[in-house]
């Protein structure tokens, strides 16, 4: 029995001797210690304080590829503090010292129940390859507080930030907003930069492509210190109080140097229809004949002719827009004489388009070929001459079979030039939009009256527009001359 007691005492002594300042003390109290407490989630992004996760182990190194501010927490483990404790740290780099900044500069503060302070590492410009930033806890105002964990294996008294290849991108967190359509109405939206951004890189960059169904202005807030999003403000410049029609404008993020559009890249601003459309009104049927592959609509546009503005004629092969059965605007055109619903053909009751019946040439949608010289008629280079979904009709009161509103469907079209032995082909992307009315002007004769807008900074210096009249028959009265300016031909 005596031998057993002696052995037990010796074992306990050896166990105590084997523990040292390098390990947590036995018992309920521990020596106070200070260390970096940087936690990383499974997707390799930091778990930002005050969020906690007991399953994560503090890291001493982090590979950073983002330019948003990196938050590095420093934790003090101690009994309750009676006063303020300060700790000094250093920040060194093997790269450009002006590529980053830290806040606070070199001192952390702990007091009362505030036992965590944070070092904010901000990146002020793109860094060079293989740059490293080393943070080190140097001194603490209370000599009883140990710097680093109470073990020698993972002290966490230093923290290394390895700066890897920067991946910067942007996206829309919300993809659609509805507006009332009142002039002066403002919609606020964000462009989100998950990995941050440098203001000087996006300040003068054209990050949006526009498809505008109405006029508006676009501004943004000062970039400030929050480098993860930018607040924009879209303000309507016109009144959209036609309850029968839906107006849409779309902003699409595009790739620019150093920044990639990812995820939700398009934002649509919509003034919805207040009066639902009845597909039995079927205005598209007034301007198409699916049984005739060579059915034409006839048009006039106010255009420059040798220095004089006149109505000039054009025509285009016109077709319905084929849709699926589940399209809200679908109307059955043909069941193909079978009882099988899977082979039924549906048309959009409210849309028409312009295209060739077959082949690779182009039609003259909206008389666009008069707008340009040096254009090619090949559809693979100038597909914009074939606008397969061009006009959308909105019947008055939702069900009128004789009149209503018409919109040019906002979209981008491409017009190009033919290549020569010395000059390669060039293409130009042009945004189109417009609005007007349609009505039955005599028995069976329908007229569409609208303004067409074309936007391209290089070709037109912005937006140009003119008036159009289109008819479902070649027999119509020539429109009365207008007293407004008109566009002239542009050389591509």
Reconstruct the topology from this structure.
Layout: H1 2-18, E1 33-36, E2 39-40, E3 46-47, E4 61-64, E5 70-77, E6 85-93, E7 100-103, E8 107-110, E9 116-123, E10 131-140, E11 146-147, E12 158-163, E13 169-170, E14 176-178, E15 186-192, H2 199-202, E16 208-211, E17 216-220, E18 229-236, E19 247-253, E20 260-261, E21 266-271, E22 296-305, E23 308-323, E24 330-334, E25 345-354, E26 372-373, E27 391-395, E28 403-416, E29 427-442, E30 445-456, H3 457-460, E31 462-471, E32 490-491
Parallel strand pairs: 1-11, 4-12, 13-20, 14-21, 26-32
Antiparallel strand pairs: 1-5, 2-3, 5-9, 6-8, 6-10, 7-9, 10-12, 15-18, 16-19, 17-18, 19-21, 22-23, 22-31, 23-25, 24-25, 25-27, 27-28, 28-29, 29-30, 30-31
Structure description:
It is a single chain. This protein has 492 residues and is mainly beta. It has three helices and 32 strands. The longest helix has 17 residues. The N terminus is likely disordered.
Overall structural class, as computed from helix and strand content, comes to mainly beta
Reported for the largest beta sheet, the result is: 8 strands, antiparallel, barrel
Terminal Cα span? 107 Å
Tell me the strand order in the biggest sheet.
Answer: 22-23-25-27-28-29-30-31
From the alpha carbons, calculate the radius of gyration and give it in angstroms: 35 Å
Low-confidence stretches: 1-28
Number of helical runs?
3
């Amino acid at each position: 029995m005596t031998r057993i007691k002696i052995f037990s005492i010796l074992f306990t002594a050896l166990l105590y001797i084997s523990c040292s300042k390098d390990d947590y003390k036995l018992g309920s109290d521990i020596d106070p210690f200070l260390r970096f407490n940087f936690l990383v989630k499974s997707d390799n992004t930091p778990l930002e304080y005050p969020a906690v996760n007991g399953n994560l182990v503090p890291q001493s190194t982090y590979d950073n590829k983002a330019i948003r501010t990196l938050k590095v927490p420093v934790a003090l483990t101690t009994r309750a503090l009676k006063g303020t404790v300060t700790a000094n740290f250093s920040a060194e780099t093997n790269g450009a010292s002006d590529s980053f900044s830290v806040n606070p500069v070199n001192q952390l503060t702990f007091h009362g129940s505030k036992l965590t302070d944070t070092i904010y590492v901000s990146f002020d410009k793109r860094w060079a390859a293989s740059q490293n930033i080393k943070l080190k806890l140097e001194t603490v105002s209370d000599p009883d507080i140990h710097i680093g964990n109470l073990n020698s294996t993972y002290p966490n008294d230093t923290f290394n930030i390895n700066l890897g290849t920067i991946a910067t991108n942007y996206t829309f967190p919300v993809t659609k907003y509805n507006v009332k359509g009142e002039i002066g109405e403002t919609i606020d939206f964000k462009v989100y930069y998950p990995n941050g951004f440098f203001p000087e890189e996006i300040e003068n960059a054209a990050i949006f492509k526009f498809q505008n169904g109405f006029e508006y202005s676009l501004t943004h807030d000062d970039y400030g210190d929050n480098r993860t999003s930018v607040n924009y403000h879209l303000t309507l410049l016109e009144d959209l109080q036609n309850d029968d029609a839906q107006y849409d404008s779309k902003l699409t993020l595009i790739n620019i140097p150093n920044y990639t559009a990812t995820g939700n890249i398009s934002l649509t601003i919509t003034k919805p229809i207040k009066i639902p459309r009845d597909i039995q009104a079927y205005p598209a049927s007034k301007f198409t004949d699916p049984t005739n592959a060579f059915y034409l609509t006839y048009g006039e546009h106010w255009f420059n002719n040798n220095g004089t503005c006149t109505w000039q004629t054009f025509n285009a092969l016109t077709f319905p827009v084929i849709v699926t059965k589940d399209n809200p605007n679908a109307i059955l055109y043909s069941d193909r004489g079978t009882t099988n619903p899977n082979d039924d053909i549906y048309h959009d009751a409210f849309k028409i388009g312009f295209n060739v019946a077959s082949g690779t040439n182009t039609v003259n949608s909206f008389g666009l070929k008069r707008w340009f010289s040096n254009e090619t008629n090949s559809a693979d280079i100038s597909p914009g001459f074939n606008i397969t979904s061009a006009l959308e009709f909105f019947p008055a009161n939702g069900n009128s079979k004789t009149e209503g509103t018409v919109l040019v469907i906002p979209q981008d079209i491409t017009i190009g030039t033919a290549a020569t032995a010395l000059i390669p082909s060039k293409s130009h992307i042009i945004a189109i939009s417009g609005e007007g009315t349609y009505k039955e002007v005599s028995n069976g004769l329908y007229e569409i009256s609208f303004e067409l807008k074309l936007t391209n900074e290089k070709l037109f210096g912005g937006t140009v527009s003119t008036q159009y009249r289109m008819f479902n028959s070649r027999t119509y009265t020539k429109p009365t001359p207008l007293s407004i300016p008109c566009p002239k031909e542009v050389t591509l």
